[in-house]
Design brief:
- It is built from nine helices and six strands.
- The N and C termini lie far apart (about 125 Å).
- The chain is mainly alpha-helical.
- A two-stranded antiparallel sheet has the order 1-2. It has a two-stranded antiparallel sheet with strand order 3-4.
Amino acid sequence: MATNTVENVLKSIDEEAKKFKSLVVNKDIDPTLDLGNLLVCDPNPITRFEQSKNKNEYLKELSRENTQLLFNEIWKLPAQRTEDVITVKLPEPTTRLPREKSIPKPKATTRWEKFAQMKGIQNKKKTRKVWDEELQKWVPRWGYQSKGDLKRDWVLEVPQNADPFEDQFGKKKKEKKERVAKNELQRLRNIARTSKKKVPGVGNTPTVDKPNKSQLTKSLQMAQQSTASMGKFDKKLAKEPTQRNSGKKRKFEPVIGALSSEKERERHILDTLNKKGKMNISQAVNREITEEQQAGQNERKEKKSKKKGKGQNRALPKSIRSNKKSKSKGRHR
């Protein structure tokens, strides 16, 4: 009995051991392993794949063996425990994989960044909140309820030299808009400088390249006309060019004497009226027919509604009908 139990235990152990594959994998040619990319390259020929009947099972066995080789090499690396988990630091990859996209080009430096590099100024990251001495608490640096929020100033002091009737709140809003516009213009100039394009602008707006003669003359004309008198009573510099009317002059038709041009103009007006006045007869007839049909349908509907109203009144008992008639007579009186 004892020998039988020992044999049964050994058989069960052998059966369980057969379920698990061995950790040792033997191959004719050793595969190359790249632990940094977790990559296995197996150069062994796949003659057994062509000869085998069950090809899926063969592929599963081949992938299991290569994965086992990879894990055997990973467990040889120095391991460490972090939060009840064993981790391994992988080495640098040896296989160079191709990129999907090209390497991004470095961004072009702005004028301020160039100036900071030249002077050795380091960019310090600003905190999101600043200390407000008036409220004695930390407030946001920008945005809602910030130190520079316009809604906080419910009273503004009028300067001594300023107009007492001037709206100081509107002035402060205008100054803020101008600052925002200036920053936006500076941002567009930086973008145009990096892409080597001109900044769209009017008058004296700075451009990337040097302004040419036509741009300078245009800016000079705008500066000469910028005063209240349109430059009529301004003091001129020595050798300053006089302003010429570069715009188009309006031409007026003569009132007397040009009979031929007047006839042509009137004939053109009559031709346009005649073109618009042409009538499509078939379209007009069809419209008339549809209007008559719609009118007939409306009349029939009104007659049917009147008949229905009379029938409903008859269906009521005599006492209710008499009460309704008496009420209507009293209203008419």
